Model the fold of this input.
Amino acid sequence: MDPRIKLLLVLLFTVIVFLVDSLLIAFSQMVLFVVLCLIARIPLNKIFPHWKFLLFLAAFVIAMQTLFAHDAGGGYLLKPLIPDGVPLLGGTGSLKRDGFFTGLMVCCRIVSLTVILPLLTTTTDARRLAFGITKLGLNYKAAYTITSTLNLIPSFEEEARLIMEARTLRGVRNENKRSLFSRLYEYRALGIPLLIKAMRKAQIISLAMDARAFGVYRTRTWALEAKMKAGDFFALFLGMVFSAAIVAANMYVAR
Done:
C-alpha cells in the first residue's frame, strides 16, 4: 500500500479512537485493529512488546476511575469501601459502576493506540515512511526526525536487553529471586551505558548528515515513485466508511 494512504488511515483511526466514548464501540474497534495486525502477519510480540506494563496500566486506570470518578447515578459496585467498624475512616470510599465501565473504555482506547503504531511501522520501511510524510506536505527534516526516532526506539530496546543479559552472565542478577523493586533498582545500571550509546549514535548520525549536506536545500529528491493504485483508493474509501460507521454507531449508542 502507498505510504501516504497508510499515514492518512492511521491519522484517521487515531482521531476516531478519541471520538468514541461507548465501551461496546471502543471494544469492537480495538478488536478490529488487532485483527488487522494479525492479517498483516505481525507477531503478537511485536503488537504487544510490553504487555505486562500494558496490563498494569489497564488495572491502574480502571482502579482510579472506579475509585475517583464522579457518580453519574449509575450505582455502586461497593459502598462503603471501608467498613463502618474501622476507626476514623470507616464508612468512606466507594467503587462506582460508571467509573468502572469508563475505565474499561479508556483501556480499550489505550490498546487501540498501542496497536495502530505497529500496524504502520512494522509493515512500512522507514525510507518509504519518510517519503510518504514528505509527499503529504511536511518538510523532509521533520520526516527524518520522525522516522529516525521510530528506528532508534527498537535499537535502544535491544541495547538494554543485551546489557541486562551481560549482567546476568556475570552473576550480577539472580533470575530466580527477583522482586519488582529489585528489578526497578537494577534498571539504574542501564542509564550510563545507554547514555554513552546514544551519544555515539548521535555523533555517527551527525557526521553522516554533514557528509551528505543534509538540510542545505529546502527540498530533496527521491528514488521512490509516488503513484496511487486502485487498491490504495479502495483502502482509503474503506477506512473512511469504517470511520463514519464507528461515529454513527457511537452516536446511536450514546442516545
About this structure: The mean pLDDT is 84. The longest strand covers residues 76-78. The CA atoms of residues 178 and 184 lie 10 Å apart. The radius of gyration is 24 Å.
